[in-house]
Design a protein that fits this description.
The complex is a heterodimer of chains A (252) and B (385). By secondary structure, chain A is an alpha/beta fold. Helix content of chain A is 39%, strand content 29%. A 6-stranded mixed beta sheet of chain A has the order 6-9-10-3-11-12, sandwiched between helices. A 4-stranded antiparallel beta sheet of chain A has the order 2-1-4-5. In chain A, strand 1 and strand 2 form a beta hairpin. The longest helix of chain A is centred in the middle third of the chain and has 15 residues. Classes of the chains: A alpha/beta (252), B alpha/beta (385).
Chain lengths: 252, 385
């Protein structure tokens, strides 16, 4: 098993948001975590990535059988955990290719593998850019600076392609995208889907799941998984709305 | 009224006599004498002077400096250059007066409609214990286009007191890079005076990374409509470095544009000062003036005193200004961490990016590369991995 979350309680600024969450993800699987605003979707993503303002109160997160929570965020990343940000950060003055090569080489160094020089990396990057249909002109531009919302999300998937994570958490990657941008991003994710990795799609809407078909759908409400099923569950949710599941657990 | 008070000889008196002896031009001689008199009467500015409140020059004033004469040719200036020289505000303070008294005059006139492709470079460095007084005169005649590079470097404990006067005539386009990377022992005082003609463009980037104490005064004045000035700069300091920038941008005529973006990166116990005045005079309708001063503090002991000031006497203008002093954003650091960069590299990369916004303006590859390296060096970071 790649990821196992056991009875996770976590929150922010003393407020408990996840209230006993359980989740099991195997390699080769795509899981969708759906839920209304405030259900704890983003908290889950950020706790997995190790965001410093989120606190784990109790519970366990095992990644490849090891305790993920005791790793620093950068160690998690080098070990193969990746989070695509809902709001990717702009890094003015640092070019996309500089940034990506540093990140790539940090990971290679960590695993005792060969690092790439700028020329070699550029070839590697060009190949990866095809996955999200990204123009190489973006390599020279500062990371996310002046990018449209769609370009930023594509850039997140490009980073995923470059870093080849074992576990990718896509935090509301579909938010703010028009249908064309959504298609490009989703196709990129589908190309990166493999038997060696697992992907967790965190989303409010079923729309994304038309393009990336999940193996398992979990419904999150009030900090707990309240329903699980196959891809049909997403349709049912879309039809009945979140009130339906809220009702199911008697949560407010 | 003539002052009968005897002037007390100082460490420069004897050296000034030598300079004066070598001066062949009567008018430049008069200029020097007037300047030295002012210096004798006023000395170096002290912290009691409002403009020098945060910058204490007593350490530099208390040392003995040997004036280093680069050229003993005396000055041969044409009428226009001489006219420009005589406009120098030598009574600004004791430093400008001393510069004028000892001025090593270097000049360049870019002829009308001439496009100079190669940058025109002025490079200075001084010996240990010596004082140098470069004084550059630049006239960019109408319709001309050129880039000048003014650079100060060295390994010495020296005192540089420089000035540059720039006249950008109608429709001329002048790019000015000023790089100060003197040794961490050096003292550096510099003055820039710019006068802009009709529809002219002045694009300046100033980098301050050297000297234990540095002070740069920059005055930009619009004298006819349609002028544009981009006046940007970076000070990057560590240990106990002190860097002070005082700028005045003066909109005296309508429809001119001035954008100023100064950034500071301060580590250890370093100290930065930014004082930027923008005047929009009564007559200057249609002015577009922007000013920003952002500072990144990398240590709890670093300090910045920033004072952006806009003084507007006309309603029909577009003006904005602001200053920030802060640390790296946690969200930005986390973004880099989440991509596998360690905390130190993440912080250094963000700091580098902060500085790069200014350094990226430098259009000369060799200089940009050198500054990139200087910045990374200071951050102990190697992007070539």
């Amino acid at each position: 098993m790649l990821l196992e979350v056991k009875d996770l309680h976590a929150g922010i600024e003393g407020k408990e948001i996840l209230k006993g969450l359980n989740l099991q993800v195997n390699k080769g699987e795509v899981h969708a975590i759906m839920g209304p605003n405030g259900s704890g979707k983003s908290t889950l993503s950020k706790v997995l990535a190790g965001h410093p303002t989120y606190e784990v109160i109790s519970g366990e997160v095992l990644y490849e059988g090891k305790n993920l929570l005791e790793l620093e965020p950068d160690e998690r990343a080098r070990e193969g955990v990746f989070m695509a940000f809902q709001y990717p950060v702009e890094v003015p003055g640092v070019s996309n290719s500089q940034f990506l090569r540093l990140a790539y080489n940090e990971k290679m160094k960590h695993h005792g593998l060969e690092e790439l020089d700028p020329l070699e990396f550029n070839d590697y990057l060009k190949e990866k850019a095809k996955i999200v249909d990204m123009d190489p002109a973006f390599f020279k531009r500062s990371v996310n600076e002046g990018f449209s919302g769609g370009e930023k999300k594509r850039n997140e998937i490009l980073q995923m392609a470059v870093l080849e994570p074992k576990l990718a958490v896509l935090d509301e990657t579909d938010s703010g995208l028009d249908i064309d941008a959504l298609r490009i991003v989703a196709e990129g994710v589908n190309k990166l889907r493999s038997t060696n990795n697992a992907i967790i799609l965190v989303t409010h809407y079923q729309r994304l799941l038309n393009f990336i078909v999940p193996d398992v759908v979990h419904v999150l409400a009030n900090g707990r998984i309240v329903k699980e099923g196959g891809k049909e569950l997403a349709y049912e949710l879309e039809e009945k709305g979140y009130e339906w599941v809220k009702g199911a657990v008697g949560a407010k | 009224m003539v002052s009968l008070q005897p002037v007390i000889a100082n460490q420069f008196t004897e050296q000034f006599r030598e300079i004066l002896k070598a001066e062949k031009s009567a008018s430049v001689k008069a200029f020097r004498e007037k300047a030295f008199r002012f210096f004798n009467e006023n000395g170096f500015p002290t912290v009691r002077n409002e403009d020098w409140k945060y910058t204490n020059s007593s350490k530099l004033a208390g040392e003995n400096w040997k004036v280093e004469v680069i050229s003993s040719e005396g000055s041969r200036l044409d009428q226009r250059l001489e006219g420009l020289l005589n406009k120098f505000n030598l009574e600004r303070n004791g430093f400008t007066a001393l510069n004028a008294a000892f001025a090593e005059i270097v000049c360049v006139t870019i002829p009308k409609e001439m496009r100079v492709v190669e940058p025109i470079t002025f490079e200075f460095s001084a010996l240990d214990g010596s004082a140098i007084f470069p004084h550059i005169l630049v006239i960019a005649e109408s319709g001309s286009k050129a880039t000048i590079v003014e650079s100060y470097a060295g390994e010495a404990r020296n005192f540089t007191n420089s000035a540059i006067q720039i006249l950008v005539e109608d429709n001329a386009n002048l790019t000015h890079y000023r790089v100060q990377k003197e040794s961490a022992e050096a003292f550096h005082v510099g003055t820039t005076e710019v006068s802009l003609g009709r529809a002219s463009l002045y694009n300046a980037t100033t980098i301050n990374i050297g000297a234990q104490l540095s002070r740069h005064d920059i005055d930009v004045k619009f004298t006819a409509e349609g002028g544009e000035a981009f006046v940007d700069g970076l000070y990057m300091l560590n240990e106990s470095q002190h860097s002070d920038t005082h700028s005045i941008i003066d909109h005296t005529v309508p429809n001119c544009v001035s954008h100023q973006n100064y950034k500071g990166v301060l580590n250890d116990r370093s100290r930065g000062v930014f004082n930027g005045k923008v005047f929009v005079r009564e007559n200057a309708s249609g002015t577009d003036a922007k000013q920003s001063n952002k500072n990144l503090l990398l240590s709890n002991d670093a300090r910045v005193d920033t004072k952006p000031q806009l003084e507007i006497f006309n309603d029909d203008v577009k003006c904005a200004h602001g200053a920030t002093v802060g640390q790296l954003e946690e969200e930005e650091v986390f973004y880099l961490l989440s991509r596998g960069l360690n905390p130190e590299l993440s912080r250094n990369l963000l700091t580098y990016g902060f500085a790069e916004e200014i350094i990226n303006k430098i259009g000369i590859k060799s200089i940009k590369k050198e500054l990139d390296e200087a910045v990374l060096n200071r951050l102990n970071t190697n992007l070539e991995a």
